[in-house]
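Work Package 3 (structural annotation) set out to generate three-dimensional models for the target panel prioritized at the project kickoff. During this period the team completed the workflow that converts sequence records into discrete structure tokens, so that structures can be stored uniformly alongside our sequence database. As a representative example, we reproduce one entry of 393 residues exactly as it appears in the project archive.
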Amino acid sequence: IHSDRILAILGLMASFAPVATDMYLPGFHQMSEYFGVSEGGIEVTLSVFFLGLALGQAVYGPMIDRWGRRGPLLFGIAIYIAASLLCLFTADIGVFTGLRFLQAAGGTAGMIIGRVIVSDLFDARESARALSMLMAVMTLGPILSPILGGVIISYMGWKTVFIVMLAFGLLCFALVWFYIPETLPIARRSTERPGDVLRTWAGLLTTPDFIVPALVGGFAQACMFAFITGSPSVFMTLHGVSTQAYGWLFALIACALVVFAQVNRVLLRHFQPSVLMGGALVLNFVAGLATLAATATGNLAALLIALWLAIGALGMIGANSVAIAMAASQSHPGSGSSLVGVLQFGFAFLVSSIVAALQNGTAWPMSGAIAACGMLASLLWFIHIGRIRHSAT
């Protein structure tokens, strides 16, 4: 098995979400004119996408424990391809929003199944390192997507972005078909019925070693989705940044994810994932407070620096929280991975909806959500660690 090639492909598939969200952000104004709705109506298509990611992961988890990894992966990508194609042919915002939900439900296969394939092939520490590499490849999506989207939308209009999404789906389907093997032997497949699956989920939800890192990762990653939802208004409307310049600023902040993910890979040779996650959570929380301070002063440069650190810390929190939770999922990696995804994108849907609903032409909704999510993640993790240490003594 060519593990580096597999990881590169899995990283590419984990980019389904950033490609399908970040690339069309600069086109919100064009789309609101095309569909005849307010920009808030277009923001709903972003929130609904996150809802599709959350619910899709609930379905794929049990499916891949029962039927393996490869078949469900190809099935999900096919749904994404079909929905992307149909998005090009509707002028009804309701239909378009529904297709965005299907796009997410299909694309989420690459994200959840990729994590499980990593856990199939590597132990806990190597999984954390592999997930860091996967995240580094994955973050080319949020770095390149808004830049590409800004250029495409400026010269060719927003629909061209969905043609690119369609091509991306076709590429991923071909790569999986030719290069991704089945990593779950028939002998290891689950024979659980739906009732058994619900009991498995209940067991994981009541296992602190699983649910705490999963919740912490979900709260922390919600910072990114607050930024994704709020940044078009903050940068382009509030600070007067152009469509293309917005793409570059978004990409600059997304670069922080790559930097911190690589730092994480190196440090994992010397430290446990739990230690690194604690440090990253502190950085995320402090940087979240700095976004509030920058918002109060209205200084764009200070806001960019604070956002770079707050979002960058997620490059460490994401990989380590997933590795710790997956190690605690024991014989149910599919269900464990699906629950991690449901929590992450459930929080994304919730926070994205709140930021959109509170949008008032300032940076406060975005900055407040980032600071609040960072605070909740840190509190939960350090209370959990304190209880573990207390029990040990």
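The chain has a mean pLDDT of 88.
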